[in-house]
Amino acid sequence: MSPLKKTIPEFLTYLKSLPISKTASGDILTICVGNESADLDSIASAITYSYCQYIYNQSCNSEEKCGLTIPIIDIPREDLSLRRDVMYVLEKLSIKEEELFFIEDLVSLKKQAPNGTKLNSYLVDNNDAPKNLKNYIDNVVGIIDHHFDLQKHLDAEPRVVNVSGSCSSLVFNYWYEKLQGDHEVVMNIAPFLMGAILIDTSNMQRKVEPSDKLAVKRCQEAINRAADEVSAQGLQDTSVFYKEMKSRKNDIRGFSVSDILKKDYKQFNFQGKGREGLEIGLSSIVKRMSWLFGEHDGETEFVKQCKRFQNERGLDVLVLLTSWRKAGVSHRELVIMGDPKMVRALVEKVSDKLALQQFGGDFDQGVAMFRQLNVEATRKQVVPYLEEAYSEVN
Ligand SMILES: [Mn+2]
Questions:
Q1: Is the pTM of this model over 0.90?
Q2: What are the residue boundaries of the structural domains of the chain, listed by start?
Q3: Which residues have a Cβ under 8 Å from the Cβ of 327 and sit 6 or more positions away?
């Protein structure tokens, strides 16, 4: 009988223990990275993708061997603790924070690698290299994602960019098929990926696509089979698992305004008609504005802190996207801050699509607050709407 394969924590410990000469293969260092929001989906996708690649390379003949893939979490290490749902899942899976690789670890790996080492990257949960890593990544070699397809890196292999509630479903199904349902591996990755799928689909109630259904069915089979294993304890009941994760994700008490803004944050540079680009940051927030004002010394102070964040990051425009559920009903707000003229122009163009209804702010001060009655539109939709709007602004 073949020896038991490494578990995910064992794989990560192993990666950390290796000198750079063993981590890189020849003059190529390979990473797998999710998007800069570094939510559970991105983190679970990157870690399990790298893990499965490792298992797969081991089981194949040497010609298929292409070194190791290092999962990178695209935030500074200190920001992980802002993601209480992620911390909860990692603890449940016995994955220690010190075994993970963050931006600063990537920088240090690059430094240690011999001159001329190329950095290849698999992308999960995004289909173009994250902006802050573009200068590091030489080649995008594979993509699995559920965002709008930017039609870049067309020769990547795999190149799976499909509609799916969660990218984790696509990652799971890809490896499930490639590893031909290998029970042991599937059991190792199922809890992690299922956690992300449940969060992204609100416990399979919203934004559920066939890929999610298939992945969860397969995950559940694996978890039930492994019910005696430590890794699957307490995970058979998906509703309980979901509630535990969700209550932690929604718990942002004690965070500073800047922590709240950077917890689930993405930044873009929109290109316009021959003008300078628009630097725009979008924070997704799990509490409504009135709650945020209450926790942070009132509206004036909260807005002041937001403007400070905006200046620190050199943003032309900052957008807050709040969302919460009450009595089974979804609610969203959109707050936009920046140059008054630009704010007005952008709002004018997206107002209908997002069904915006102003409840606060002052256009003349460059701050406008809206209820977003199109509650289906998450950041995934809001970003392309705003980008299109900017391209039309004169
Ligand atoms: Mn995602």
A1: yes
A2: 8-248, 257-392
A3: none
